[in-house]
Q: What sequence folds into this?
């Protein structure tokens, strides 16, 4: 039983104004309800906050001020937008397949929200500690794809269909490097459970994985960006090419759902990144405080976690503000020909390093200790860092030679034209 | 009781989805029903202490196969008209044979005395599976990887535009 | 020193090479050739390792690999090597490497197939020498026919009737093999084992059945050797085969029969062999003298050398017969040493001679002795190399051929002096045909530039008139072998002696 | 001094090294090649002297028993056969002669061969030749001896056929090799008999009395083993030393360059045969009235018969060649009579003076050749004595050296030949008188004495023809003495020809050579080895005969004019023709042996490929094919037509009908599968 | 879990299998047939996992096999769809009744 639930149970047992003693399960029920509230409350909240945040940040990057009329710093602008959307007429195109058309946005939003089930928000606060945690993340992501496809097809609009095609191509392509980098993490952590991953990122166990595996992080984060359709990978809704992609026909509430999906997805990605690579809620004094006063420790952990999430969200917006959009073939090339091989290669070297540093144990079969097991977690971290840098170096060499060759071809072609 | 309710919900998803797949004239719906069915199956797997398999089910069937099928349907949408019947000439025969087969099989299922074990389910499913894949089933596992690679390459070659391939 | 799976590697690497070549596009001739040569270098290296690593103090079969293959018939994948097979494996690896290296330079037609077949040939030939299971033995024995058949048929010279020769070769050998197979099966039915090392202790035939089986196997081997009167496939096959094919044919293929006699017939049927030894020795002596005489009457260089093989393998036969006849063990061991060494020597010497014929044939596209003359002045290096090889062939002391003749006759004089004394006539005849026909017609006499210009093929030959460096490189290992064995035979004979002594002392 | 013996193996190695270096490295550079060859043999000479010094110092025991160095060589079953090197008194004596004579010949050849296109090759060959002979001498067993023996055979082949552009030269080489090869094969057989009967080939082992005794009692084909073996060994010597009837190759060997002739005739090749017989003498002698008689008979016949041919030859080198045959006959006589040392002594002295004579003749030929070139005359044969005459005036050094050699050959006191030939005749004379009846020793003596007369006659004839009278051709008129490198060796050899005889003069040091080399066979206990006392009567008779013959010849030919008929021919008539044609032995051999063999070879080839064996194979093959075709016919008509095709039609019809079930629709097939599965399960369920 | 007997699972699997079979047998469209096949494969998977859970709960062999089945299904689907796309390009139809050039 998590300390926080015990604490809650104690609290309930000591409530003086309640006539009957509360059953122990009451604490759990309250906790679940609270969890549900967070899970479904987070979505609209995220949309409102993030829209505003994005507008402000982009504006700053583009040397503007952004929303500034409604409320202080214009933060009520987002609320106003939300109200506008909810009250707008909900149109459905004439040739649309009604059921899938309505189901699609919901599926998109739900698939994003479901991710939060395995993200620990603070010590003791997690939807469900699945032993296949990060695998689950990949799995629920699939529903998003399905939703996108449904939305695109059912709209009976060629832009929507094209957008859906692009979306699927992109999502399916980038699912692979993302899954492989998650597997890399799983190999290093020895588990897919997010709690274990966070546990393994304690300083005594080797510290944050972003230090140990910068390449894995990079691959994961880039692939995640593509999964969330964020710029510079946002060509499934490239306004200038296909109007708005698969959700061109949506309006009102359903459009809001799509938007919610997008922002929640972003949030999920940031949360996942923070959990896996920045140690989640980990930070100074959290554990000590949590063991002493669980609620305070939990709150401190939440603060740390949110700070990390916001950091990532800022990075994503920063990207959007600075980078131009990919071309579709470049996008696929980048996914298949760079990220996938890189992540595979990285997986191999990491597995090798892990094998070297692995302590003795059993996992179905008895595993002997690796030859360098004596160096412990920090040794593993530094070895992984070195191997990652090595992989990065080799990758950069490969990219360099390829670039030279293609430049040579271009030059030749140019010379041929001129000559 | 709860379990039975959950089971029925999933059964409705699975069988309803399956029925939808085979009965709807609209292939697009059929594919959607298919993913519904698959999702229900994932629920089954969770109930059967196979969480990993459930995730795999979602990833592979819903995330890949159903999507691929949808894709194929969309690519060949010119012939996906819903006007004419989607069944062929032997439909009536199939309608006779499959229920018969179903009945026979059910008879079989009921008749056989299954040696059900009451032992507690394994807790370390994941590690056991990993050990099996890299232990006793190493060769099938590797063969499988080769098969997937071949399928990957083969699919690319098959689906590539012939004219473009000639360039 | 035991290196695991080294024999399997010796077999497998050429096979692997031949399979890999299949995946190289035929237009990439350079790649094919390089790969083939490299693939054949490994067996050579390994066979040297085996030779070095073979523990002479212990003796017996070493580097043994024994796995069940077809359990229901008790057939095993059983490999092993002893003092008898080591030189043969080495010979086969050496000649293959040289043959491939040489062919890499001269083969221009259907390159890919040639190298695939050649590597297959190497693997199968080596397989016969390392197999210790009769089925495996027979398997390799038969496999080897196919590449050779194709090599003769496809790369043979049109005017030499390659198809006829190839079919003759194939059918003739096959007839022998079939008899052999039947006999093998009889042995299996009697003993329940295919294991060459086990059978001698298990075999319990009635005398008449033993004789029948013996002769069935003997004819199979005798055709391969080839023994008079089963030799007529040889000149045709040799003449028609491409150079490297002739080399393998003479250098290794003929040794299969001899090897089989020593490996199988002596241990299995010592008494029958002994009873027929005089007759077999007589055939050997006839082969020697008759082969020499027929050689003397040839005007085609390659044919001449082909018949000389008949003669030289006659020496071998005499040695084997002397080794199984009544007599003291020392003399008989010496005779068997001589016979084995004769096989090895014949491999390197006649192999070398065929290379040298190839050298001149590539330049002139003729092998007619009367077409040449005075080449010793025009191509002195070629002359020098040919002289060493030719004299090694005629048994000049100080070169390899002499040692084996000495040992054979030493044994034969002890056990069957009449045969021996008749046999020595062949020595004179050998000298006569080599000096009179080869040396005198090709190298001596006055050199005529017009005659040479008429036959020298400038268009297809770009390496100059005298022997080219790559051909010298081909010959150098063989020359080193000839001189080394001639001057200091202890090195090779210690290994052979070990095996011969063991075979003979356990057989009788 | 003992340690010096260890140098023995090096003696043959130096020339061998020279050979290898010339072939592999120096072959483009003539000067370097000659230098290497001369350096190699020179080092051998020096090494030999060191070994000889060691032998001399080691004393009697070692001179008899010898020093030896075994080398393991061939594994034979459980034992190992050793080859090796050995030195005893006899070997030491040979070691004095062979390298020295070779060195002189090499130096001579360095000038003689100048201008030849294959100069380097020549020196490579002769180096190998010398290496072979030296190996033969220092071998301690018959096998190594045989190897060296054969290598010499090879070199003689290469050298005789050195000018292979000439048809006669290439044929002569072949003839030499094959003829000696016949002898070699006999030796080979003898050696193997010996080896298989005794299990060893080391001389010292064979000549143990018990081994010899066993050999004499063991039978091969009803004869004592020792007799069979020694006869076979002697066969080898006959071939190598050009004894009748295998002498035919030696005169033809004159086709080689003259230094080669000197080498073959003096220092190396032919000495090898005599050396072999001398070395193996105990084996020959173990059975009385055995092989030794044959040796003596062959020797006598050869001595006389060679001399007779010699008087009728016009070629200056051929005269000397037959002279060599005859002189080798003398040596065989000596050995055949058991006079080991007499034979060896003559072998040594003969080597010096015969080398001298050959080199001298070479010098003359060289001079005449130059003269001919000077006179622009390309038809004159520079070797024909009829084209010479009056050369004494033009080449004094050569002439005097030649005279010394002639004197030694003819046996004029006190030249070397006098002492050595005399000892042989004395041996025969003594044995004749001991036996008291006219037997083999008498005939041997008679042949020797007559031979001595004839020897003097042909040498007189030669001297007269070559050096005296007027030049009979332009070439002879323009002849010039060659340079120092040729004449100095001549003079050195002349010195030896004059004085070498004194090493075994009974009056000085009590026959020194006898004690040094003559007792090597003592341990075998079968030969009487005491020296024959000096026989003044023999000496007087032979001297008288020699002087008579010499002056007869000299007188007859001194003033022969060009184109004039040969005086002897006038005297002897048809006999002279027979002599000139060497008793038609060559023709006889060609007819009897060569033509037969070639005919047999051609017959065998036809027999093999055209007439019998291959046709049988083809017949079998064709029968198979015919049977196949016949079966094919039967197949087509009966089996196929009625049975198979009928069935086939049936099935074709069925197929046509049944193929309608193959709709190409996978679904149809699937349906069938489902149906069948259904029925199978149903059958299972209802227990059918 | 014991509240649900094994036969329930098996019945559901059987039903799904029959549905899939019916789909594979009666549909005209190649993609629909493929979907039927996938259903059948899934039915098998249910069986495998259910047997694993009920009969040998201590080990996971059934799940391992299920993973293999899924992998094969994935490969099959990829190739099959590629073939369908290619056929569609070539022939302009995905109706298997028209794709009968293997007939006779």
A:
């Amino acid at each position: 039983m998590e300390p926080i639930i015990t604490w809650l149970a104690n609290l309930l047992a000591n409530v003086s104004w309640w006539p009957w003693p509360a059953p122990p399960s009451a604490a759990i029920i309250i906790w679940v309800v609270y969890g549900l509230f967070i899970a479904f409350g987070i979505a609209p909240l995220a949309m409102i906050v993030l829209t505003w945040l994005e507008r402000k940040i982009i504006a700053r990057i583009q040397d503007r001020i952004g929303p500034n009329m409604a409320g202080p710093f214009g933060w009520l602008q987002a609320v106003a937008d939300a109200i506008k959307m909810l009250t707008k007429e909900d149109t459905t195109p004439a040739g649309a397949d009604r059921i899938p058309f309505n189901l699609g946005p919901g599926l998109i939003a739900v698939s994003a929200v479901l991710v939060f089930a395995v993200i620990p928000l603070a010590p003791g606060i997690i939807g469900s500690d699945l032993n296949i945690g990060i695998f689950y993340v990949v799995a629920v992501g699939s529903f998003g794809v399905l939703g996108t496809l449904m939305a695109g097809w059912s709209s009976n609009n060629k832009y929507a269909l094209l957008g859906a095609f692009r979306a699927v191509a992109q999502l399916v392509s980038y699912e692979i490097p993302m899954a492989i980098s998650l597997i890399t993490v799983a190999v290093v952590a020895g588990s897919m459970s997010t709690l274990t991953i966070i546990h393994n990122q304690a300083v005594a166990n080797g510290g944050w994985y972003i230090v140990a595996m910068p390449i894995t992080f990079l691959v994961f984060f880039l692939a995640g960006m593509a999964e969330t359709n964020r710029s510079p990978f946002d060509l499934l809704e490239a306004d200038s090419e296909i109007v708005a992609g698969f959700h061109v026909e949506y309006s009102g509430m359903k459009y809001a759902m799509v938007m919610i999906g997008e922002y929640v997805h972003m949030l999920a990605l940031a949360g996942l990144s923070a959990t896996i690579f920045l140690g989640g809620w980990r930070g100074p004094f959290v554990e000590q405080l949590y063991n002493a006063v669980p609620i305070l420790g939990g709150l401190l952990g939440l603060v740390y976690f949110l700070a990390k999430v916001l950091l990532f969200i800022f990075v994503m917006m920063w990207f959007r503000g600075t980078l131009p959009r990919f071309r579709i073939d470049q996008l696929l090339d980048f996914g298949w020909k760079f990220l996938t091989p890189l992540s595979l290669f990285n997986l191999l070297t990491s597995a090798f390093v892990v094998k070297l540093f692995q302590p003795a144990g059993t996992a179905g079969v008895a595993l002997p200790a690796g030859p360098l097991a004596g160096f412990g977690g920090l040794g593993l971290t530094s070895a992984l860092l070195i191997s990652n840098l090595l992989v990065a170096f080799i990758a950069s060499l490969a990219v360099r030679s390829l670039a030279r060759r293609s430049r040579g071809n271009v030059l030749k072609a140019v010379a041929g034209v001129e000559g | 009781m709860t379990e039975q309710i959950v089971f029925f919900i999933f059964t409705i998803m699975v069988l309803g989805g399956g029925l939808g797949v085979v009965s709807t004239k609209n292939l697009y719906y059929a594919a959607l029903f298919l993913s519904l069915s698959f999702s229900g199956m994932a629920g089954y797997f969770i109930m059967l202490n196979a969480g990993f398999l459930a995730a795999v089910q979602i990833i592979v069937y819903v995330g890949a196969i159903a999507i691929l099928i949808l894709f194929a349907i969309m690519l060949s949408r010119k012939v996906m008209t819903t006007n004419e019947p989607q069944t062929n000439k032997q439909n009536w025969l199939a309608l006779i044979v499959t229920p018969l087969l179903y009945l026979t099989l059910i008879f079989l299922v009921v008749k056989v005395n299954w040696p059900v074990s009451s032992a507690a389910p394994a807790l370390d499913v994941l590690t056991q599976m990993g050990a099996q894949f890299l232990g006793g089933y190493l060769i099938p596992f590797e063969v499988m990887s080769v098969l997937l690679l071949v399928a990957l390459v083969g699919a690319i070659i098959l689906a590539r535009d012939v004219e473009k391939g000639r360039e | 020193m035991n290196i695991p799976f080294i024999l399997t590697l010796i077999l497998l690497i050429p096979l692997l090479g031949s399979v890999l070549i299949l995946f190289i596009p035929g237009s990439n001739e350079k790649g094919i050739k390089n790969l083939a040569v490299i693939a054949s270098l490994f067996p050579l290296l390994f066979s040297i390792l085996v030779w070095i690593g073979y523990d002479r103090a212990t003796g017996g079969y070493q580097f043994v690999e024994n796995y069940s293959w077809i359990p229901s018939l008790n057939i095993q994948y059983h490999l092993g090597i002893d003092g008898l097979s080591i030189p043969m494996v080495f010979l086969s690896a050496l000649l293959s490497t040289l043959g491939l290296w040489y062919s890499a330079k001269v083969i221009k037609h259907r390159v890919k197939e040639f190298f695939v077949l050649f590597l297959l040939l190497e693997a199968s030939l080596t397989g016969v020498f390392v197999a210790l299971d009769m089925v495996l033995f027979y398997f390799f024995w038969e496999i080897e026919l196919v590449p050779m058949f194709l090599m003769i048929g496809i790369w043979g010279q049109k005017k030499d009737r390659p198809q006829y020769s190839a079919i003759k070769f194939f059918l003739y050998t096959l007839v022998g093999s079939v008899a052999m197979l039947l006999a093998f099966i009889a042995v299996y039915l009697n003993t329940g084992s295919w294991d060459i090392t086990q059978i001698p202790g298990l075999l319990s035939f009635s005398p008449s059945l033993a004789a029948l089986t013996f002769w069935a196997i003997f004819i199979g081997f005798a055709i391969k050797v080839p023994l008079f009167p089963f030799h007529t496939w040889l000149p045709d096959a040799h003449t028609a085969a491409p150079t490297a094919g002739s080399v393998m044919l003479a250098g290794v293929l003929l040794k299969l029969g001899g090897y089989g006699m020593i490996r199988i017939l002596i241990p299995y049927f010592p008494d029958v062999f002994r009873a027929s030894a005089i007759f077999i020795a007589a055939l050997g002596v006839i082969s020697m003298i008759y082969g020499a005489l027929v050689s003397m009457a040839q005007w085609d260089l390659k044919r001449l050398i082909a018949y000389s093989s008949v003669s030289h393998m006659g020496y071998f036969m005499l040695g084997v017969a002397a080794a199984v006849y009544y007599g003291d063990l020392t003399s008989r061991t010496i005779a068997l040493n001589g016979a084995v060494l004769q096989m090895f020597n014949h491999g390197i010497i006649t192999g070398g001679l065929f290379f040298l014929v190839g050298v001149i044939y590539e330049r002139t596209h003729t092998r007619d002795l009367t077409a040449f003359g005075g080449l010793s002045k025009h191509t002195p290096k070629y002359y020098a190399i040919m002289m060493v090889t030719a004299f090694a062939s005629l048994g000049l002391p100080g070169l390899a051929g002499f040692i084996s003749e000495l040992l054979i006759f030493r044994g034969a004089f002890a056990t069957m002096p009449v045969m021996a004394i008749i046999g020595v006539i062949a020595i004179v005849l050998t000298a006569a045909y080599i000096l009179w026909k080869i040396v005198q017609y090709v190298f001596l006499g006055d050199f005529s530039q017009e005659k040479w210009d008429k036959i020298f093929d400038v268009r297809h030959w770009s390496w100059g008139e005298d022997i080219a460096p790559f051909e010298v490189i081909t010959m150098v290992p063989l020359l080193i072998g000839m001189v080394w064995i001639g001057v200091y035979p202890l090195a090779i004979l210690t290994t052979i002696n070990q095996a011969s002594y063991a075979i003979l002392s356990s057989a009788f | 001094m003992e340690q010096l013996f260890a140098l023995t193996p090096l003696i043959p190695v130096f020339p061998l090294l020279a050979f290898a270096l010339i072939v592999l490295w120096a072959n483009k550079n003539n000067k370097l090649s000659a230098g290497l060859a001369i350096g190699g043999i020179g080092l051998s000479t020096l090494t030999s002297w060191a070994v000889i010094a060691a032998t001399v110092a080691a004393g009697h025991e070692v001179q008899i028993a010898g020093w030896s160095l075994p080398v393991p060589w061939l594994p034979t079953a459980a034992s190992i056969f050793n080859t090796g090197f050995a030195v005893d008194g006899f070997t030491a004596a040979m070691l004095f002669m062979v390298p020295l004579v070779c060195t002189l010949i090499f130096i001579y050849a360095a000038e003689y061969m100048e201008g030849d296109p294959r100069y380097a090759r020549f020196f490579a060959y002769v180096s190998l030749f010398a290496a072979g002979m030296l190996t033969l001498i220092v071998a301690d067993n018959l096998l190594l001896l045989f190897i060296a023996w054969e290598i010499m055979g090879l070199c003689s082949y290469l050298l005789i056929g050195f000018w292979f552009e000439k048809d006669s030269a290439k044929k002569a080489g072949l003839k030499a090799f094959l003829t000696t090869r016949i002898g070699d094969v006999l030796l080979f057989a003898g050696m193997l008999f010996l080896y298989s009967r005794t299990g060893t080939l080391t001389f010292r082992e064979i000549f143990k009395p018990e081994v010899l005794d066993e050999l004499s009692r063991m039978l091969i084909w009803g004869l004592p083993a020792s007799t069979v073996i020694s006869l076979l060994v002697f066969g080898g010597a006959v071939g190598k030393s050009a004894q009748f009837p295998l002498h035919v190759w030696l005169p033809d060997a004159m086709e080689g360059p003259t230094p080669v002739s000197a080498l073959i005739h003096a220092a190396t090749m032919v000495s090898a045969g005599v050396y072999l017989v001398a070395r193996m003498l105990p084996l020959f002698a173990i059975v009385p009235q055995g092989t030794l008689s044959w040796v003596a008979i062959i020797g006598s016949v050869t001595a006389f018969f060679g001399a007779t041919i010699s008087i009728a030859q016009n070629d200056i080198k051929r005269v000397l060649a037959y002279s060599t045959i005859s002189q080798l006959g003398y040596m065989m006589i000596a050995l055949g009579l058991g006079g080991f040392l007499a034979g060896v002594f003559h072998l040594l002295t003969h080597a010096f003076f015969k080398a001298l004579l050959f080199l001298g003749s070479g010098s003359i030929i060289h001079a005449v050749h130059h003269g001919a070139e000077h006179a622009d005359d390309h038809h004159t044969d520079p070797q024909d004595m009829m084209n010479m005459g009056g050369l004494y005036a033009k080449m004094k050094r050569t002439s005097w050296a030649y005279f010394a050699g002639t004197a030694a050959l003819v046996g004029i006191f006190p030249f070397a030949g006098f002492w050595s030939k005399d000892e042989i005749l004395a041996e025969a004379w003594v044995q004749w008188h001991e036996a008291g009846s006219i037997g083999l020793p008498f005939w041997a003596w008679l042949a020797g004495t007559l031979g001595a007369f004839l020897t003097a006659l042909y040498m007189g004839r030669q001297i007269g023809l070559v050096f005296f009278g007027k030049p009979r051709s332009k070439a002879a008129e323009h002849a010039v003495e060659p340079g120092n490198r040729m004449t100095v060796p001549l003079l050195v050899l002349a010195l030896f020809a004059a004085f070498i005889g004194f090493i075994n003069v009974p009056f000085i040091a009590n026959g020194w050579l006898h004690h040094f080399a003559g007792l090597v066979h003592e341990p075998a206990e079968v030969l009487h080895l005491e020296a024959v006392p000096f026989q003044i009567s023999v000496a007087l008779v032979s001297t008288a005969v020699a002087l008579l013959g010499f002056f007869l010849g000299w007188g007859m030919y001194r003033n022969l004019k060009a184109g004039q008929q040969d005086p002897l021919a006038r005297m002897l008539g048809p006999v002279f023709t027979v002599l000139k044609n060497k008793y038609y032995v060559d023709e006889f051999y060609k007819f009897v042996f060569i033509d037969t063999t070639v005919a047999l070879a051609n017959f065998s080839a036809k027999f093999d490929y055209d007439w019998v064996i291959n046709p049988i194979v083809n017949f079998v093959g064709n029968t198979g094919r015919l049977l196949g075709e016949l079966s094919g016919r039967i197949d087509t008509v009966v089996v196929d037509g009625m049975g198979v095709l009928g069935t086939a039609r049936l099935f074709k019809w069925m197929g046509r009908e049944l193929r309608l079930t193959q709709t190409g629709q996978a679904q149809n097939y699937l349906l069938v599968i489902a149906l069948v599965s259904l029925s199978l399960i149903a059958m299972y369920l209802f227990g059918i | 879990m014991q509240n649900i007997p094994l036969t329930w699972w098996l019945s559901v699997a059987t039903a799904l299998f029959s549905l899939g079979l019916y789909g594979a047998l009666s549909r005209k469209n190649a993609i629909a047939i493929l979907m039927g096949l996938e259903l059948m494969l899934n039915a098998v998977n249910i069986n495998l996992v259910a047997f694993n859970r009920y009969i040998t709960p201590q080990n996971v062999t059934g799940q391992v096999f299920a993973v293999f089945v899924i992998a094969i299904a994935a490969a099959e689907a990829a190739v099959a769809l590629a073939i369908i796309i290619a056929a569609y390009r070539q022939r302009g139809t995905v109706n298997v009744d028209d794709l009968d050039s293997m007939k006779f």
